[in-house]
Each structure stands twice: as structure tokens, then as C-alpha cells.
Amino acid sequence: xxxxxxxxxxYKRELVLIETLAALARLLQPGDExxxxxxxxxxxxxxxxxLERMTAAGVIRWYRRSMASQNEAMNIAGLLAQGEILLFLxxxxxxxxxxxxxxxxxxxxxxxxxxxxGQVLQPWNxxxxxxxxxxxxxxxxxxxESCEVRALMAGNFAMRRETYLAVGGMDENFFGANYxxxxxxxxxxxxxxxxxxxxxxxxxxxHLLSGGGNRAFGTKDTWGHIGGSIGDYYFxxxxxxxxxxxxxxxxxxxxxxxxxxxxxxxxLIPSMAMxxxxxxxxxxxxxATRPYRGIRPLNDYGALVDMGQGSSxxxxxxxxxPRRPRTTIDERVLSTAANIQPVRD
Length: 345
Known about the structure:
Helices cover about 35% and strands about 15% of the residues. By secondary structure, it is α/β, with parallel strands linked by helices.
């Protein structure tokens, strides 16, 4: 049975993070692990206490760093992971019972895909959807049927570790709101392997869309969300054919400036138009000066603290160290009520 490293990058999440980790821990099989790459500057005391208890019990491997970057955190975890399969998840989810096994079994088939994308039900999806617009950029991960796609959801996808490292990991040119970072690695993986990605609906979860995470950088119609705009333009300029590239850019310029919210608050229209112009210029500059920044040696990522050891984690390459046996999980450690006061995010 292939082992899974469940990777949970986190930023400014509190109780929902603890609840997510407790739910995931109950799905682990022998040999599996959970890596938490924690980029929150300072947790509430009750959150820190719960994370410390989970770490001491061997439930999670908890690492802290000061710079917040989802893609860097994912690449760091890819280097640290000891599992054969890397499963990337959001930190504000309710996993379904078959989440891990759905991904695992897909990668154990005789014709394994280069990557698997699991079902993601958003707050506006009471049930899975039966129809999707296409199986590319407009694919809806709430879909109910298994299929082949050229799309990923950064909050629920899995790859063999050797494949992830071979394709270069996540492109670290994305930052902030990180829009289209998952589309970029999906396109790059399909191009590198000559295969499409397998959508596995049984590997599902419900996304809670909590505060913090990417939403900590700003809502859609604000300048704080400029990272999402840059990411969308950067992806289109880098990955799409010329005509599709032009159509994608023009569509975004119009929709970002003229949508239901900006029309209702017309003073936002010139501000959002200016934001899009700045974002497009910055995406062009990034593509011209550094068209791709993939996974790097672990020591290049700055200070990384292994909270289980209380020491620096990136002076040596930890993936080559022997696997630490996971102790039997005490349900009291996983009980939110026993370890953290119910202070909501």
C-alpha cells in the first residue's frame, strides 16, 4: 500500500485548523503522515496548545516559517515529505471518509494518472453537480462523475512525490491570493507527462471557506487581491495559446472592473480598472524577468523550525532521514473540546 503525506499549508487559521487536522488524522493508515507548514505569525494560545499536543503525540509534523507563501509552503512540504504520494489540502475543510483512499487507489491502478484531483464541495454546493461547462479551466470540482481533466484544485489534489519533484513543484512566482497557481501546475504536468489528470469524486471534501488563508490578503474587489489578478494574467500569458491568451486577458479586464458589486458601487470601477492595468504590467514583467520559479533546495527557503524538535529543520535534507513511527493516536488528543476553547476564527 502506498503511503500518503497529507500536506496542509496554513495561514491565519485557528479553531478550524485544529478541527481539520483532527478529522484528517482519523483517516490515516499505517505509514501515512500529516505535515503542517504553519505561516501564521502568532496563534491564539489555545490553538498553539492543541498543535503542541498533536505534535507531541505524533499526530502531525508541525513546521513554522515567517514568510507567508502557499506555493513555497507546498514545495517545502514536498521536500520534507516521507510518503510516496503527496496529498495537498486546504486548512479549512471537512474531509469525507474516502478522501485519502480515493486518491491512494487511483495512484495504485495499472494505468495511474500523473495527478488526481478530488471533489470539492463549496458552501454554495449542497450536493455535487451533474454538469460542467468543460473539463479544462471552467471545470467545476463539485462534479459528481469520474473523468479526465486538465485542471486541479490546490486544496485537494495528489501526485506521486517523484512526479511532483520531476515537474518542478509549484511555481513560486504566484503570491498573495494565488489565483491560477493550481491551473499552472495542471497545464505543466499534462504537458510534461503527455497525460491528463484524473478527477476522483470519491476523494471528496467540503470546503468551509473560512477567514484567513488566501482571503487574508483581501476580498475580490480590493487592491489587496492584486496577487490574484497578477496570477491570472501570469498563468494566461505563460500557459495558454495566443488567441485563448488574448481572450482570457480581455475577459478578465472587463469582468474585474464591471461586475455586480462594482456596478452597485460605481466608484470602485476606476480603481479596479487601474488595479488590473497594474496587475497585467507586473505579470508581464514577471514573465519577462523570471518566467518560472520552481522547487528549490530546502536551505533556500529561509528559517524553518521543526516544532517537534524545537530546532531548525532545513540544515539538512530531511526526506532522506528514517521514517519516524507514528504513535497510536489518543482520541483525547484529537478532541477539539478537550484541547481548545471554542473561540471561532
